[in-house]
Write a structure and sequence with these properties.
This protein is mainly α. The chain has helices spanning 2-13, 35-87. It is rod-shaped and about 105 Å long.
């Protein structure tokens, strides 16, 4: 008797044919971007990336310039100090 009930229930419920599309298989138009929308989003992302890159390069160049100025001034001062000590204008260190 249990077999008859199972057969009856399965024939009443029925199984979906895999070849027929379900309503979930059909895309809704609002769920997808058009090519123009994707191109606009890519262009906006590229513009933002370029702006970020330019800002970071500007900061790097400024910082590198300051560091180079400090190192250059220090090297020039040490060179001048050594030159003046060799010439005897400044007394030798620890003499």
């Amino acid at each position: 008797m249990a077999r008859t009930e199972t057969k009856t229930q399965s024939s009443q419920i029925g199984f979906r044919d895999p070849m027929t599309p379900d309503r979930h298989d059909i895309p809704i138009i609002g769920d997808f971007y058009t090519k123009a929308e994707v191109d606009a989003m890519v262009a906006a992302a590229l513009d933002e990336a370029r702006a970020i890159d330019e800002a970071s390069m500007r900061k790097h160049n400024r910082d590198a310039t300051i560091i180079s100025m400090i190192l250059g001034f220090t090297c020039l001062a040490l060179f001048l100090d050594g030159t003046l000590r060799l010439l005897g204008i400044i007394p030798p260190f620890m003499a």
